[in-house]
Design goal:
With 256 residues, the chain is of the alpha+beta class. Helix content is 26%, strand content 29%. Strands 1, 2, 3, 4, 5, 6, 7, 8, 9, 10, 11, 12 and 13 form a 13-stranded mixed beta sheet that branches. Helix 3 packs across helix 4. The longest helix is centred in the N-terminal third of the chain and has 24 residues. The N and C termini lie far apart (103 Å).
């Protein structure tokens, strides 16, 4: 191959400039096309999802209720307003029991239900209130698991927080005409938002990934916000050790 003499410019072959410009233009167009596709002007918001976002709102509600009913377990966290009281929930629920903690403005206590046996663990101050100032009994009950008699008002008051089907049925109710237009995320999971009464009747985020479980609920009337997760994850339930249990008999209190 002959060397190019000094000072002599290499001659560009005909068409090379046009080819280079065409390649550059093609690359720019490809980048712009990718960018426009990512901007989502015509992008399907449900692409790669479980498809429930394409369904009518009533069918989305039916699907998410069915998913919740068929799951063996769920973990609930958040705040619930009931009968004028605000409860902070942290409960793991299964088909035949539950465990977790409830917190109110006045007290915090643990709940455990194994089958029909309900146990409540709280400090002495809580039991002093339940026993209308019976400090001796309160000291005995404080820090122990108290096996709550089924006939006692305490059982009726708190057992609903340990019943998966009952609690979900009350929480997942939406009031008003349903719409499902918005998309969001809960814990990094894409959701479709099921709104009732333009949001005033509650807003439920339903998973667009995998099983269409309900993941977050804004309750109607500002009655709390609850997150639902760990669907189907095992919940270990067993009765407390005998030395940690106080069986108080047929009645704990008549105060509530």
């Amino acid at each position: 191959m002959s060397a190019i003499p000094p000072g002599v410019r290499p001659r560009r072959l005909p068409g090379a400039r046009r080819t280079g410009r065409a390649a550059l233009a093609g690359a720019v167009c490809a980048v712009l096309a990718a960018g426009l596709a990512g901007c989502g002007a015509d992008e399907d918001p449900d692409a790669g999802t479980n498809g429930v976002g394409k369904l009518p709102p009533a069918k989305i509600q039916a699907r998410t209720r069915a998913a919740a009913e068929h799951a063996d377990t769920v973990h609930l966290t958040g705040n619930v307003v009931s009968k004028g009281l605000t409860y902070k929930l942290d409960m793991s629920l299964a088909e035949h029991g539950a465990k977790g903690e409830l917190t109110t403005k006045a007290a915090a206590f643990q709940l455990l239900r194994v089958g029909n046996a309900l146990y409540l663990k709280a400090d002495a101050a809580f039991w002093a209130g339940e026993k209308s100032g019976a400090s001796g009994a309160a000291q005995k009950l404080g820090g122990k698991y108290v096996k709550v008699p089924a006939s006692d008002p305490v059982y009726r008051k708190f057992s609903g927080f340990t019943d998966k089907d009952t609690l979900l049925a009350s929480l997942l109710g939406l009031r008003g005409k349903l719409t499902a237009k918005d998309r969001s995320t809960v814990g990094g999971v894409r959701t479709v938002r099921l709104a009732a009464g333009a949001g005033a009747g509650g807003v439920l985020d339903v998973s667009l990934e995998g099983t269409p479980y309900p993941l977050r609920l804004q309750r109607a009337g500002g009655a709390g916000v609850v997150r639902l997760g760990d669907w189907g994850r095992r919940v270990d339930l067993k009765a407390p050790a005998k030395d940690q249990v106080v069986d108080y008999g047929s009645q704990i209190s008549g105060a509530h």
